[in-house]
Amino acid sequence: MLLVIGGLMACGKAPDTLHYTGSTMGTYYSVKVIEGIDDAAGGGDARSTFEKQLGNGVERILAEIDHTMSTYRADSELSRFNASPGADWHPVSDDLYTVVAEALTISRLTNGAFDITVGPLVNLWGFGPPEKPEETTAPSEADLRAAMARIGYRKLAIRAGPPALRKEHPRLYLDLSAIAKGFAVDKVAAYLEGHGLVNYLVDVGGELRAKGKNAAGKSWQVAIEKPVSGERSIHRVFAANNHAIATSGDYRNFFERDGKRYSHTIDPKTGRPVTHELVSVTVLDRRAMRADALATALSVLGPDAGYEFAERENIPAWLITKTKTGFQDRSTPGFSEFLD
After folding, report:
1. Which residues are annotated binding-site positions?
2. pTM greater than 0.85 (yes/no)
């Protein structure tokens, strides 16, 4: 999880600021805009109207993405595709195509460590709809084999024009929860920039994108949370520097049975929750959608393979591994420029 460190003004007039908050996609959103608001509004009495319209625009974008990509809504575009029979081309919106196409790109890049067809396994282990891990037990081997038969990003075909998806397995099921929030962040950021706003921080469920300066006139400061369940404290602070930031970790979403802990991070190749000691991964990228997916992929790969992959692909990443004596931090060379 990421925490935003607010910039405080030591003296003088506080900068012009807008802050929108609310709920979306089963989590929260926070959008902060600093300065340039009067210019974007056109000045004068138009300010209050602009503020309302801007906030309504943010809400509309997030609501549309939720209605497109949620697996918790039977009427979402994604749920309708998941429920569709047969292997015919299924027309989809530009947004759904964009996210699925990016997901498949990351799947190929990570050799399947990131896989949006893993939904049946997520659900089987109690981390999907209806999400009740407290009632979950480890599935049987027969149930695992049946779910694994439906898994595999190569079982999904896409077509750009006109945008469409096609199942190569009739019971293929997509879950975009590890990439959709990042896409939402990018789309809200593009909306703000389209109105000439260049100092902002967009946060959807802990996936962030920052641009320009904070209220103190400095780069937005973001903190990696200490990966301890039931505690909210800062582990490390860094500067966002006009980047998107995403974190994946297993220290909040898990369940325990008979003294064994089961992570919500599922390895598509084994069909089981990961068992390594990598507890938190933070990735920076120009796009939140890509950072979101890559953070999940590194969490699946683990502390060694994940680091080697990130270093090889020049991905700025910060990995935290649990040890017998505490935590061990490791960052790729590309992350160093963001550290204070």
Report:
1. 178, 292, 296
2. yes
